[in-house]
Structure formats: structure tokens, C-alpha cells
Amino acid sequence: MGKSGVLPLWEFMADIIRLLSDTVANQIAAGEVIQRPSSAVKELLENAVDAGASRVQLVLLDAGKTLIQVIDNGNGMSDADARMCFDRHATSKLRNIDDLYTLFTMGFRGEALASIASVAQVELKSKRREQEVGTRVLMDGGNFVSQDAFAYQEGTSISVKNLFYNVPARRNFLKSNQVETRHIQEEFIRIALSNPHVHFSLHHNEAQVFDLREGNYSQRISALFGNNYKERLVPVEEETSIVNIRGYIGKPEFARKNRGEQYFFVNSRFIKDSYLHHAVSAAFESLIPRDAYPSYWLNLDIDPALIDVNIHPTKTEIKFQHDKDVYAILRAAVKRALGKYSVAPSLDFDKEPAFDLPLSKLGDTPVQPQIKVDPNYNPFRIEREKSSTSFSSGGSQQMHSFRPASPSSTDVKAWLENHREVAAQQVLMHEKIEDSPIVELLNVFESLDDFRFVQVSPKSAIAAFSRGLVLYDISAARERIVYERYLNAFSRQQLNTQQQLFPPQIVLTPNDFLLIRELMEELRKIGFDISEFGQNTIVLQGVPSGLDPGSEERTLQLLLENYRLNKDKLQLTMHENLARSMAKSIIAREQSSYSSRELRQLAIDLLHCDQPFYGVNGQSVLRVLRSDEIADLIQNKS
Q1: Considering the domain 22-215, what is its CATH architecture?
Q2: Least CB-packed of 139, 242, 507, 512 within 10 Å?
């Protein structure tokens, strides 16, 4: 008897262990294998490839929630196989335990179709080449409905309808159609990359998203991510007794701030492996910034007996018997490829050489370049400040365009009076009013026009006044100004759009294209005019007024990259994320040298912000160094 005086359960109940029914067991397995529509897509596409198909078509409705259909021209199934494939642990890949160590196929456990059928309505149509008539099997929630003869071409078609219709809790956990579509496209891309010899196509809601013709590896990468990727790829090839490595890495200058373009395949199976990723990152060391990630599409061919692929339900993780050797070989192969590229850029043999030279130059006679010398140049002459309020350089024009109208001295005083309340709140944290940095700053900037600003580094400036010095972070100040401008555009007034005379067509990665569609309405509020133009392509009809000519495409790409990075790391609203991403994208392309007049104007613009003393990331933008503090620093130093 237990301490509470209640008999334990086993004292009055015998034989409490029961075998689960096949339906419940399959639904539990589905929870491990089929987590969302993309999981079903992965299993069905892998089965099509294993069947020897040379053409695979994926059809979706409502991000796979209503329909997932995979049609292939593979070997097909007999009548008995078509019925038995929905039984749990039924597989054509294994006969005994030793077969686990000689696997070259994608699926092998025999759980995929049984798991899918237990949480959906499934129709299978298939025919082998030697058969005159095919077969059709209907399943509903894991229960066999019917099987009959059916006229069908060679191959197999599997339609998964109303996924999770009988598991409402699981269906309620699914994300929006945009998010689920993004996951499906990622699975599609992984399988398409590992099988460039197969023709893949993808249709979503009756619209064609991909049509990937069979070809070589570089052609498949370009077809998925854009034709401009041909110029970004560096080939990697290495053959050893342990592992053979082939594929491509991205050039260092095209490194991204997220991990979106990193693909490892082992024997054509996509895997995730942080250890191998570290090997590639180590090879790129000192070539890319610390906060950037290299792009790579690498396939490792290795003896199946030297790896274990049966350690994860989705088979995306494997174990290497000689992991340290594989690490060293991979790192050396990538490093050697980067070394070859630094000597001679990689050649694209599929490209027509005649296109390298502009047609207007084909008949011209080469002219020897000449060196022009300015005899009046004096490096010690100080450039006079321009009296005009508009700046000459491209970066300065951009800086001028993205700030509010220049305030008068009366406006500055009005602002100071309005912000006394902010100063009073800051004073509460100090024993004496004069110790408050905010009060000191307010007193300092009352005589802003008397200051002489000097840039002391690419990112910092200093101004002297009668009681000390003012230091401020140029980049943080600019980012704060631009951030608030775009954030206000969502709640107050939509920004002006500058229409493009010759609107460029931009080919995006599949994920970037989906993100553009998701953000289309919000991007219009900050000045972008974007329209869709075919497969993963947009037309940039207009951009926010003030963007530097020629920087529109790169600014948009940086915007998407920063948006995705902020979404992964920060808890922000969509408007905050867009404003922050846009500010970061613009600041990244601005000048690094400013005149005294520009620095003074930047300080005035900063004072017009709602939060002028703190940057977007929370860092201090301004600091006052009083005369007594400077004296103390000098004395301590001496």
C-alpha cells in the first residue's frame, strides 16, 4: 500500500499492456515522419526517384493542405505491390540486416506511405511496363477502401488529399500557406539538386513554379537560384580512398548573412551536419566577415558501409565512421578550390565566349591606356566646404535625400523644450541634475551652429565646444534617422516612389520570391513598386525616392537578407523588421567620408528623431566628454 493509503494501479488491474491498433501505430509514426505537408512531399519525391523516374511532377493546392500529387514515369507497381505498400514496414529496399549497410536509395523503412495514408485520403494509380492495365488503390485515414483495375500510363501517381483531416490538432498547428509553401519548396530544391539528371516540375494552385530540365550540376543550381549564379560558383573536386567530393562553393564576395544556400549531400541524400559545415567555414576563414556564411552545394560519395543513415526518422542526419578524416579532406578540398580561384577564375564552359565582349567593341582597335596627371594637385590643400545644401557625391546625395527638412534654430529650440520631459526622466537616475548626460546634451546642442565637427574615423565624429567635446557614432545616427523615417511610413504617410525609366527584371531565389510576395503590400508603403514577372522573377517598376541610381537591385536583396536574419534572431513586428532591414541596407552602401557641414546636418537630423540618443540596436549614439573629464583622463595618463 502506498503512503497515501491508496492501492497502486497494478494491485487490482492485471494485464494492462495492450498492443496498439495499426491505425494508432501509424498515426504515431506519422507524427515522427509526417510533421507537415513538406514531409509528405519529401517522402513521395524520394520514392519517385528510387523508382528510376526520369521525369517527376509535383502538383500542390493550398500549400499541400488540400492536395499533394506526385506523378512519375518510373518502374510502376504491380497489383500486389500497390496494395502492400500501404502496410507498415513494407519495403522493397531491404531483405536482411546487412542491406542497411549497402543502401544507395533514399527511402528504406517502409513507414512513409503507411504514415501518410493514416492522416489523409490517398489515391494511388500505377502501372508497370509489362502490364496491359494498371491498378488504382484508395485509402482513407489508414483504412483500405478499394482496389480496381485502371487504365494508366507507365509509372505512378500518388494523390494525398486533405492532409491531417482526421487529426484536427495536428492540422491546427500548420502555419500559413506562405510558410508551408516555403518549406515544400525547400524540400523540392534539395531533391532536385541531388538529382540533376531528372526532369522536375512544380505547380502550385495551377501556376507553374519550376520547370527544371535535366542537365549537369551547375545548370541545375542556376535553374533553381538564377542564371547569375553561374558567375558565383567555384568547382570543388577531390578523390580519395575514403570519400569523393564534387560540387560547388560560392565565391567569398557573395557570402550571405544567413544559411540559406548551404547544401550537403551524402550519396545524393541531403543531410544536415554542423561538423562538416565547420570544415567549410574553416576553409573560408579570413576570406569572409565573421557574421557571413559561405554558400556551398557539395556531394560526398562514400562507401555505405562507412556511414549509418538510420539514426533519424527523416534521415537528415548520419554518422561517419571516419568523421575526422572526412572533415580534414573536405576542408582541404574547399581550401584548394579557393586557392585555384584566386589564381584563375573558374570558367563556365556552357557560356558562349562571343558574349563576353560588347558588340559595340568587336570592331574597335585596342588603345593603350594613358596616365593623366593633375599638375595643380596639392595634397596639403584643405578642401573648402560647399555652400550648397545638396552634396556632390552619390553617397552624400543619398544621405541628404533620406533626412527630414533642415530645421531652423527656432525649430531646434522647440524640440529641446519638447524633450525636457525625457531629460527629466533621465535625471531621476542621477543624484545631481548636472550629472545627467541627457541634460548635458540638451545644453550642448542649444548652440549647435557654433560647433566645428571633425570626422575621426569612418564611423565616428567629434565636435568641440566651450565645455568639452561631443562624440557620436555616425553609422548608428544614420541608421536611427533612416529607421524612423521608414517606420513612420507605415503609420503616418506612405513614402514617395521614384518610377524607373527602364524597370529592371530581377531573378530571385525561390525563398526570396516567396518572401517578396508575402511583403508586397508593405513594401509599397515604403516606396517600392514591384510586379511579378514569371518564374521567380520580378520587375522593379519603382523604388523609394532618393535611392542611389544603380543600387536598387542590391538594396532590395540586402533588404530581404536582413529581414530574414532579423526574423530568425529578433522578436520584431513586420513593420519594425522592414524598417530596420531597410535602414541597414541603405547604410551599408553609404559613404565613409563626411564634411564638417554634413556632420553638423546629421546631428540636427538626429535631434528630430523620437529616440535620438540611442541607436536601433540600443547602443548609445551620443556622448558628452566634459572639460573636467578630459583633464582627469590626461592626468591619469601622465
Answers
A1: 2-Layer Sandwich (3.30)
A2: 242
